[in-house]
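May I ask for whichever protein you like with its backbone structure tokens?
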Amino acid sequence: MTALVTRLRLEQSEPGAVLGTATPRLSWVLDVRAPGWASDRYEVELQDAAGATSLATVPSGESVLVDWPFAPLAPRGHGRVRVRVGSGERWTPWSDAVPVEVGLLGPEDWSAAFVSPVSLGGLDDGAPLVFTDFDLDELPVRARLYASAHGVYEASLNGGRVGDDVLAPGWTAYEHRLRYQVYDVLTGLRRGPNTLSALVGNGWYRGQLVWPGNRSSYGSRLAFLAQLELEFADGSRRRIVTDGSWRASRSGILFDDLYDGERRDLRVPNVPDRGGSEPVEVVPGDLARLVARRGPAVRVTDRVPVAGMSASGGTIVDFGQNLVGWVELVVRGGRAGDEVTVRHAEVLEEGELAMRPLRSAKATASYVLSGADVEVLRPTFTFNGFRYAEICGLSEVAAADVTALVLGSDLRRTAWFESSDPDVDRLYENVVWSMRGNFLDLPTDCPQRDERLGWTGDIQVFAPTAATLFDTSGFLAGWLEDLAAEQRPDGGVPYVVPDVLREPDPAAAGWSDAATVVPSVLHLAYADHDLLARQYPSMRAWVDKVAGLAGDGKLWRGGFQFGDWLDPAAPPDDPAKAAADPDVVATAYFARSAGLLAAAARTLGHDADADRYRALADETVRAFNHEYVTPGGRVLSDCQTVYALALCWDLVADPAARGAAGDRLVELVVAAGYRVATGFLGTPLVLDALCVAGRPDVAYRMLLQKAPPSWLYAVTMGATTIWERWDSMLPDGRVNPGDMTSFNHYAYGAVADWLHRCVGGLAPTAPGWRRVEVRPLVTGQLAHARTAVDSPYGRIESSWRIDDGRVLLVVEVPYGVTAEVWVPGAETPVVVGLGTHRFEGAVQPGSRPSEQRLSGSAAPSTDAGAPAAAEWSA
């Protein structure tokens, strides 16, 4: 077998997902098993619902997000697709067939209406249950439930839960976009009477958001929308839809809130109470807002057992890992009416749950027992960030009866890293866990306190890491649609998306720049041309907004700025008081966004725009130099962050001044004892800036520093996620007194991008990783490192180790990818394609990467001592 087509999928969807487009793009990975293969065409076969097949042959060697080669599918259209690829006279075997199904594409496809309880759905009434009964004389051959809600919902059919989604339909910019879900419910139906029901909770729609007492941000009434479509063997169809005939009753969920938790009475089953039911009424709801999900749903993705237990009032359970989700508790032999409570916290202080960092969030689940022999307690419409849980109300708790259920968007892992330093590896895993916890339907800042918002600044700095660690192609594409929808008419970009802060004129450097940075990152990672085109008006509107603020001088000065947020020198009560001058930072970001916009315009063929915005970027750089850079290379405010921005974004025009700026950054880092002195905006760039300055050895010393503030300080303190502050926990074990003290904040985890690119040595240089640079910086401060990325074209891997003073490097490249390999010590790169390639080089501490000298040959080696390829666990 010379080649196989694997991992066929449509759009950015999961296998089997229902799509929101009639012309889904296709992607696949070509696993080439023998030399000489050169893809020159592919065939796509579509088998429709009736079994008829269509075949399209396309003369192209591309395999990532290729256009749909058939006529658009109709709403509800479905079938199966498979692909094969040709090379000269040869063809691969056909791929496995994957289902293709289109959802409801417009309001005309819906006949359901939003329904709400008349009196049972008040703020203090708990989660209502809405339901309808219907009879079936015969079973259908196909059944789809389309559903959404104002609030969050969990649907059931004949008492069995529908789907495995959690907190559906999720959080979007509800005024503009509301997701719907699609479920295959065929196996849940039965002849005779059937009942379709749904619990409806507050969620983001009506629960507390941002500050105490701020509820009902989007509306005061919960509502449910459902359209059950049945298809029978004779071709007839039937719909059961939400309308005024539905009923509502109370459920056992007496209270639910994302911040405060949930209270449930297990004596009240969550099934329709027909005797105590009331009518529903149809309420307004714009069906034109309804959209299908792009990325994966929120689900239970993992189960974590108890790592330790202690007694202090109640039973304190330690799961050994700070995570996001639920505590599942099995109670045996409980008495009816007894109450069990579970409180959550990320850390302990003096042996007790540290609740102060949660601010007003109560993070408490409570249950009134029914008295059944065995009861399983877990919430439905809330989530918590925690490592520790305190269980009260039980005389004894067995560790085997307590489990942490990990919640998050069910993203596919796509990158791995390991090194010779276990603390660095723990840091990397902390980044992974922080991303898992905070990528819960949208990229939140933190998952535990009374916030949990989609801060644009956090994802702006973390996007390159996110797009490498996990497949975020659909997840962030959907979030960017919300950003564009929430953007002000003058181009202003909110500080959080979805925008519940509702600032009248939002514009902040590094935060609002998510409009340009995140689309650019995603295009590089996934080669999604359509996404770039879709976001281009938003990108342009933001840069035009800043151009207006900067004026003819091209300097963005004054106005509100977050600045280099949470600079470690900032006092606990003033996180914006950073060493970096906010005007310098703002103008640097202006130049950066203008440059990104120019590049996007060129990619999309908008050449006039590309020329105009390139000129704007260049003018801004000149203004930056004139105002903020001395002839000797000093940059105003003279701190790590401003030099990091200036060096990484090429903002210092004169080469001599640029070299002096690099030397000054090194001086500042050495004077700080190799400790970090940057906040949210400087931290992702400071190690790269040291490498630009020709001192990767100093970058390594900074990475490996364990005294605070540093990345590894938190590791030495037992952290299992990334902290919001460099010293969220003080060396004596006390929690930082600041009001913003999260122990699960991914922003500083942007360092993982540097680990991938500069330690592991693997970085994309063309969209979709079609071309990559392999350039590990080997200074001798680590003995080995390895990174792998599941790119859109397949697994790419770089691994190296130092052996007897020599660097042994192995590079694995899949079909379709070209790698430019800079062997440590080489002056020029070696270009390689498909296969496993071995090289030998030299340790080069403290030299500029472009000035490394090769000791030995850069030609591929067959040295038996080179590290062998090995499997990575997903």
